[in-house]
Amino acid sequence: MAAQTRGERNNNPGNIERTAANPWQGRLPEAEYRRTVEARQNGGRFEVFAAPAWGIRALAALLIAYQDRHGLRTIRGIVARWAPDRENDTGAYVAHVAALTGFGPDAVLDLHGYAHLAPLVKAVIAHENGRNRYPDAVIDDGLLRAGVQPPGRAVVSRAADRAKTTVAVAAGGTAVLGAALDGLQQLAPALPVVQQIATLPTVALMVAGVVAAVGLVAWLVLRR
Fold first, then answer.
1. Are 159 and 198 in contact (CB under 8 A)?
2. For the chain (length 224 residues), average pLDDT per consecutive 10?
């Protein structure tokens, strides 16, 4: 198996740089970040996320912001900002992304829609990493967290999403808590109480996360 690329190792397939101005949801806290290969060996230029879906969410969110804040709605315009020619072969990047997506370089896109955003995210990942090793389910999870609805899935409330992030950070990125809260997040539309979790203190969120994790494990065992 080929070695991981930097983007894959960092759960940051868009190779987004780490800055104080953008405290992305799902990024590693500073103490954990300082222990990563990115921080210790590569100068700490790029962001490191707790899971691939968070890095994909950040990539999708940036592309949407390019449309909403800067009026960039074509591959040519988006890539010129994403990968400026002062350090990239922007023309080759545009051509590659256009070929992968099937969209013309100057076709007008709507990045609030899955049909345009998903192919663009996959193409950027493929160009940045030389491949896209993420299954559609992981891509869709990232887009869902960015507020874009994949076919057959519901966008969860912002409050539930923030609650999950708070618990993940407070628990140091514990995988079991993250999985349990992912399950709660999918149930948010049917469980209004989940939308209130974000207002609880951090300690209460951690306790609730542990309880949810135990309940989730029990449910997975019993349903077999």
1. yes
2. 92 96 96 95 94 98 98 98 94 98 98 98 98 98 97 62 45 41 41 44 54 55 48
